[in-house]
Amino acid sequence: MRRERGIALITVVLVVALTSTAAAFVAWRQQVWTRQVENLRDAAQAEAVTRAAIDWAGLILAEDRRDNTVDHIGEDWAKPVTVPVEYGEASGQLSDPQGRFNLNNLVRGGSADPLQVEAFRRLLGFLGLDPGLADAVVDWIDPDDLPTGQNGAEAAYYLGLAGDGGQAVPANRPLADVAELARVRGFDAAALARLAPYVAALPGTTTVNINTAAAEVVAALIPGMSLDDARAALARRGDKGFRDLTEFRNGIGNLHAGNMQNAHFGVATQYFLARIETRFGRVRQHHLALLWRAPNARPAVLWLKTL
User: Fold this and answer.
1) 3 state SS of 60
2) pLDDT in tens, 142-175
3) Which stretches does DSSP call E strand in the chain?
4) How many other CB atoms are found less than 10 A from the CB of residue 175?
5) Which domains does the chain have, with CATH numbers?
6) How far apart are CA 285 and CA 277, in angstroms?
7) Whole-prediction pTM value?
8) What tens digit of pLDDT does each residue of 26-54 get?
9) Which of 175, 141, 139 is nearest to 303 (CA)?
Protein backbone atom coordinates (compact mmCIF):
# COMPACT_ATOMS: atom_id res chain seq x y z
CA MET A 1 0.00 0.00 0.00
CA ARG A 2 2.84 2.37 0.86
CA ARG A 3 4.51 1.62 -2.47
CA GLU A 4 1.28 2.18 -4.41
CA ARG A 5 0.70 5.49 -2.67
CA GLY A 6 4.25 6.55 -3.61
CA ILE A 7 3.67 5.66 -7.24
CA ALA A 8 0.37 7.55 -7.24
CA LEU A 9 2.05 10.60 -5.71
CA ILE A 10 4.81 10.54 -8.30
CA THR A 11 2.19 10.21 -11.03
CA VAL A 12 0.29 13.21 -9.69
CA VAL A 13 3.50 15.25 -9.52
CA LEU A 14 4.35 14.32 -13.12
CA VAL A 15 0.85 15.21 -14.31
CA VAL A 16 0.99 18.55 -12.50
CA ALA A 17 4.45 19.24 -13.92
CA LEU A 18 3.36 18.38 -17.46
CA THR A 19 0.21 20.46 -17.08
CA SER A 20 2.20 23.42 -15.78
CA THR A 21 4.72 23.08 -18.61
CA ALA A 22 1.94 22.92 -21.19
CA ALA A 23 0.21 25.93 -19.64
CA ALA A 24 3.47 27.89 -19.59
CA PHE A 25 4.12 26.97 -23.23
CA VAL A 26 0.63 28.06 -24.26
CA ALA A 27 1.05 31.33 -22.36
CA TRP A 28 4.43 31.89 -23.99
CA ARG A 29 3.03 31.21 -27.45
CA GLN A 30 0.15 33.57 -26.70
CA GLN A 31 2.61 36.26 -25.65
CA VAL A 32 4.71 35.75 -28.80
CA TRP A 33 1.59 35.87 -30.99
CA THR A 34 0.44 39.05 -29.26
CA ARG A 35 3.87 40.63 -29.72
CA GLN A 36 3.85 39.71 -33.41
CA VAL A 37 0.42 41.21 -33.90
CA GLU A 38 1.53 44.40 -32.12
CA ASN A 39 4.67 44.62 -34.27
CA LEU A 40 2.64 44.14 -37.45
CA ARG A 41 0.20 46.81 -36.32
CA ASP A 42 3.02 49.25 -35.47
CA ALA A 43 4.79 48.52 -38.78
CA ALA A 44 1.57 49.18 -40.72
CA GLN A 45 1.08 52.47 -38.86
CA ALA A 46 4.69 53.45 -39.53
CA GLU A 47 4.26 52.74 -43.25
CA ALA A 48 1.10 54.84 -43.36
CA VAL A 49 2.78 57.76 -41.59
CA THR A 50 5.75 57.50 -43.97
CA ARG A 51 3.43 57.83 -46.96
CA ALA A 52 1.69 60.76 -45.33
CA ALA A 53 5.05 62.43 -44.62
CA ILE A 54 6.07 62.07 -48.28
CA ASP A 55 2.77 63.60 -49.39
CA TRP A 56 3.35 66.44 -46.96
CA ALA A 57 6.86 66.97 -48.36
CA GLY A 58 5.34 67.17 -51.83
CA LEU A 59 2.93 69.87 -50.68
CA ILE A 60 5.78 71.88 -49.14
CA LEU A 61 7.75 71.68 -52.38
CA ALA A 62 4.74 72.65 -54.47
CA GLU A 63 4.08 75.66 -52.25
CA ASP A 64 7.74 76.65 -52.41
CA ARG A 65 7.64 76.59 -56.23
CA ARG A 66 4.60 78.88 -56.22
CA ASP A 67 6.41 81.35 -53.96
CA ASN A 68 9.70 81.59 -55.88
CA THR A 69 11.96 79.93 -58.43
CA VAL A 70 15.17 79.98 -56.36
CA ASP A 71 16.03 77.12 -54.01
CA HIS A 72 18.48 77.48 -51.12
CA ILE A 73 19.09 75.95 -47.70
CA GLY A 74 17.45 78.85 -45.88
CA GLU A 75 13.98 77.89 -47.14
CA ASP A 76 11.35 75.99 -45.17
CA TRP A 77 11.77 72.80 -47.19
CA ALA A 78 15.36 72.42 -45.93
CA LYS A 79 14.41 72.51 -42.22
CA PRO A 80 14.16 69.21 -40.29
CA VAL A 81 10.71 68.42 -38.90
CA THR A 82 9.68 66.18 -36.00
CA VAL A 83 5.99 65.47 -35.41
CA PRO A 84 4.62 63.46 -32.46
CA VAL A 85 1.82 61.09 -33.41
CA GLU A 86 -0.30 58.76 -31.30
CA TYR A 87 1.93 56.03 -29.82
CA GLY A 88 4.92 57.22 -31.80
CA GLU A 89 6.88 59.90 -33.61
CA ALA A 90 7.78 60.84 -37.16
CA SER A 91 10.71 62.98 -38.30
CA GLY A 92 12.10 63.89 -41.67
CA GLN A 93 14.16 66.25 -43.74
CA LEU A 94 14.44 67.20 -47.40
CA SER A 95 17.81 67.64 -49.08
CA ASP A 96 18.90 68.74 -52.54
CA PRO A 97 20.75 66.09 -54.57
CA GLN A 98 21.24 68.66 -57.34
CA GLY A 99 23.86 70.23 -55.13
CA ARG A 100 25.95 67.18 -56.06
CA PHE A 101 27.58 66.00 -59.28
CA ASN A 102 25.08 63.92 -61.26
CA LEU A 103 26.97 60.83 -62.45
CA ASN A 104 24.48 60.34 -65.26
CA ASN A 105 25.68 63.62 -66.78
CA LEU A 106 28.84 61.75 -67.82
CA VAL A 107 27.09 60.21 -70.82
CA ARG A 108 24.81 62.17 -73.13
CA GLY A 109 23.16 60.77 -76.21
CA GLY A 110 25.02 57.50 -75.80
CA SER A 111 28.48 59.11 -75.77
CA ALA A 112 30.73 60.49 -73.06
CA ASP A 113 30.42 64.24 -72.44
CA PRO A 114 34.07 65.48 -72.43
CA LEU A 115 33.41 68.49 -70.19
CA GLN A 116 31.51 66.44 -67.62
CA VAL A 117 34.11 63.67 -67.66
CA GLU A 118 36.92 66.16 -67.02
CA ALA A 119 34.88 67.77 -64.25
CA PHE A 120 34.39 64.37 -62.63
CA ARG A 121 38.11 63.69 -62.88
CA ARG A 122 38.80 66.95 -61.07
CA LEU A 123 36.25 66.08 -58.39
CA LEU A 124 37.91 62.71 -57.82
CA GLY A 125 41.27 64.48 -57.52
CA PHE A 126 39.94 66.97 -54.98
CA LEU A 127 38.72 64.03 -52.90
CA GLY A 128 42.05 62.23 -53.02
CA LEU A 129 40.75 59.50 -55.35
CA ASP A 130 42.15 58.20 -58.61
CA PRO A 131 40.84 60.37 -61.51
CA GLY A 132 41.03 57.26 -63.68
CA LEU A 133 37.91 55.95 -61.93
CA ALA A 134 35.93 58.24 -64.24
CA ASP A 135 36.71 55.96 -67.21
CA ALA A 136 35.15 52.93 -65.54
CA VAL A 137 31.99 54.86 -64.63
CA VAL A 138 31.60 56.08 -68.23
CA ASP A 139 31.91 52.51 -69.51
CA TRP A 140 29.37 51.30 -66.96
CA ILE A 141 26.83 53.80 -68.30
CA ASP A 142 27.51 54.11 -72.03
CA PRO A 143 25.88 51.58 -74.41
CA ASP A 144 28.99 50.57 -76.38
CA ASP A 145 31.56 47.87 -75.66
CA LEU A 146 34.70 49.98 -76.22
CA PRO A 147 36.80 50.66 -73.09
CA THR A 148 37.36 54.32 -72.25
CA GLY A 149 40.98 55.35 -71.61
CA GLN A 150 43.42 53.21 -69.67
CA ASN A 151 41.06 52.55 -66.77
CA GLY A 152 37.91 51.71 -68.69
CA ALA A 153 36.07 48.43 -68.15
CA GLU A 154 33.63 46.87 -70.54
CA ALA A 155 32.21 43.34 -70.82
CA ALA A 156 35.58 41.62 -71.27
CA TYR A 157 36.83 42.94 -67.93
CA TYR A 158 33.73 41.98 -65.97
CA LEU A 159 33.49 38.56 -67.61
CA GLY A 160 36.96 37.92 -66.27
CA LEU A 161 35.60 38.50 -62.76
CA ALA A 162 32.53 36.31 -63.21
CA GLY A 163 34.27 33.27 -61.73
CA ASP A 164 34.90 35.26 -58.54
CA GLY A 165 31.27 36.29 -58.20
CA GLY A 166 31.82 39.48 -60.17
CA GLN A 167 29.37 41.32 -62.41
CA ALA A 168 29.17 39.57 -65.80
CA VAL A 169 28.66 42.73 -67.89
CA PRO A 170 28.39 46.48 -67.27
CA ALA A 171 24.89 47.89 -66.93
CA ASN A 172 25.08 50.02 -70.13
CA ARG A 173 22.41 52.35 -68.76
CA PRO A 174 22.20 55.34 -66.41
CA LEU A 175 22.90 54.66 -62.76
CA ALA A 176 19.81 54.13 -60.64
CA ASP A 177 21.62 54.58 -57.32
CA VAL A 178 25.06 55.77 -56.23
CA ALA A 179 25.46 52.47 -54.36
CA GLU A 180 25.66 50.79 -57.76
CA LEU A 181 29.24 52.09 -58.00
CA ALA A 182 30.24 49.23 -55.71
CA ARG A 183 29.99 46.99 -58.79
CA VAL A 184 32.16 49.27 -60.96
CA ARG A 185 35.86 48.65 -61.49
CA GLY A 186 38.09 50.34 -58.93
CA PHE A 187 35.42 51.31 -56.40
CA ASP A 188 36.00 49.72 -53.02
CA ALA A 189 34.07 50.55 -49.86
CA ALA A 190 36.49 53.32 -48.86
CA ALA A 191 36.36 55.04 -52.26
CA LEU A 192 32.58 54.85 -52.36
CA ALA A 193 32.24 56.26 -48.85
CA ARG A 194 34.55 59.16 -49.75
CA LEU A 195 32.72 59.98 -52.97
CA ALA A 196 29.09 59.39 -51.97
CA PRO A 197 28.42 62.79 -50.28
CA TYR A 198 29.40 64.63 -53.46
CA VAL A 199 27.60 62.69 -56.19
CA ALA A 200 24.06 61.70 -57.12
CA ALA A 201 22.38 59.41 -59.64
CA LEU A 202 19.52 61.47 -61.04
CA PRO A 203 17.44 60.79 -64.15
CA GLY A 204 18.65 62.46 -67.32
CA THR A 205 20.90 65.51 -67.45
CA THR A 206 20.68 67.99 -64.59
CA THR A 207 22.32 71.23 -63.54
CA VAL A 208 24.10 71.79 -60.23
CA ASN A 209 22.29 74.16 -57.88
CA ILE A 210 24.94 76.71 -56.93
CA ASN A 211 22.97 77.49 -53.76
CA THR A 212 23.29 74.00 -52.29
CA ALA A 213 26.51 72.72 -53.89
CA ALA A 214 29.71 71.90 -52.00
CA ALA A 215 32.92 73.73 -52.88
CA GLU A 216 34.42 70.50 -54.29
CA VAL A 217 31.60 70.18 -56.83
CA VAL A 218 31.74 73.82 -57.89
CA ALA A 219 35.53 73.81 -58.27
CA ALA A 220 35.34 70.61 -60.29
CA LEU A 221 32.89 72.15 -62.75
CA ILE A 222 34.90 75.36 -63.27
CA PRO A 223 38.33 74.57 -64.80
CA GLY A 224 41.19 76.28 -62.99
CA MET A 225 39.22 77.09 -59.85
CA SER A 226 40.83 75.99 -56.58
CA LEU A 227 38.97 74.73 -53.55
CA ASP A 228 39.86 77.89 -51.65
CA ASP A 229 38.44 80.05 -54.46
CA ALA A 230 35.27 77.97 -54.53
CA ARG A 231 34.83 78.21 -50.77
CA ALA A 232 35.30 81.98 -50.87
CA ALA A 233 32.77 82.28 -53.69
CA LEU A 234 30.16 80.16 -51.93
CA ALA A 235 30.61 82.06 -48.66
CA ARG A 236 28.90 84.98 -50.40
CA ARG A 237 25.63 83.15 -50.88
CA GLY A 238 24.64 83.62 -47.22
CA ASP A 239 21.32 82.27 -45.96
CA LYS A 240 19.29 83.24 -49.01
CA GLY A 241 21.57 82.03 -51.76
CA PHE A 242 22.30 83.63 -55.11
CA ARG A 243 19.32 85.07 -56.97
CA ASP A 244 20.77 84.06 -60.33
CA LEU A 245 23.99 82.88 -61.96
CA THR A 246 25.00 86.44 -62.83
CA GLU A 247 25.25 87.31 -59.16
CA PHE A 248 27.53 84.32 -58.64
CA ARG A 249 29.67 85.05 -61.71
CA ASN A 250 30.23 88.65 -60.66
CA GLY A 251 31.98 87.51 -57.51
CA ILE A 252 34.42 84.92 -58.87
CA GLY A 253 36.67 87.05 -61.07
CA ASN A 254 36.98 87.32 -64.82
CA LEU A 255 39.19 84.25 -65.21
CA HIS A 256 36.85 81.86 -63.43
CA ALA A 257 33.78 83.52 -64.94
CA GLY A 258 35.24 82.94 -68.40
CA ASN A 259 35.76 79.25 -67.65
CA MET A 260 32.32 78.78 -66.15
CA GLN A 261 29.74 76.97 -68.27
CA ASN A 262 26.30 78.36 -67.46
CA ALA A 263 24.71 75.18 -68.76
CA HIS A 264 26.28 73.28 -65.86
CA PHE A 265 24.72 75.42 -63.14
CA GLY A 266 21.41 76.76 -61.92
CA VAL A 267 19.72 78.25 -58.85
CA ALA A 268 16.66 75.98 -58.82
CA THR A 269 16.12 72.30 -58.14
CA GLN A 270 13.83 69.67 -59.63
CA TYR A 271 14.82 66.64 -57.56
CA PHE A 272 14.70 66.31 -53.78
CA LEU A 273 15.57 63.52 -51.36
CA ALA A 274 13.20 62.93 -48.44
CA ARG A 275 14.70 61.05 -45.48
CA ILE A 276 12.00 59.91 -43.06
CA GLU A 277 12.18 58.08 -39.74
CA THR A 278 9.08 56.75 -38.00
CA ARG A 279 8.74 55.12 -34.59
CA PHE A 280 5.75 53.23 -33.24
CA GLY A 281 6.17 51.15 -30.11
CA ARG A 282 9.07 48.78 -30.72
CA VAL A 283 9.09 49.39 -34.50
CA ARG A 284 11.48 51.91 -36.00
CA GLN A 285 11.66 52.46 -39.76
CA HIS A 286 13.94 54.54 -41.98
CA HIS A 287 12.97 55.43 -45.55
CA LEU A 288 14.51 57.43 -48.37
CA ALA A 289 12.47 58.77 -51.29
CA LEU A 290 13.36 60.68 -54.44
CA LEU A 291 10.81 63.32 -55.40
CA TRP A 292 10.63 65.01 -58.79
CA ARG A 293 9.16 68.51 -58.88
CA ALA A 294 8.35 69.16 -62.52
CA PRO A 295 7.19 72.63 -63.61
CA ASN A 296 3.46 73.19 -63.14
CA ALA A 297 2.93 69.70 -61.72
CA ARG A 298 2.55 68.15 -58.30
CA PRO A 299 5.81 66.53 -57.11
CA ALA A 300 5.96 62.82 -57.94
CA VAL A 301 7.72 60.03 -56.03
CA LEU A 302 10.23 58.35 -58.37
CA TRP A 303 11.33 55.72 -55.87
CA LEU A 304 11.02 54.84 -52.20
CA LYS A 305 13.34 52.46 -50.37
CA THR A 306 13.84 51.21 -46.85
CA LEU A 307 17.23 51.90 -45.29
Assistant:
1) helix
2) 999 999 999 999 998 988 876 655 556 889 999 9
3) 81-85, 88-95, 101-102, 107-108, 111-112, 199-200, 208-209, 265-266, 271-280, 283-292, 300-306
4) 23
5) 2-96+270-306 (3.30.1300.30)
6) 6
7) 0.85
8) 666 666 555 665 566 677 777 888 888 89
9) 175
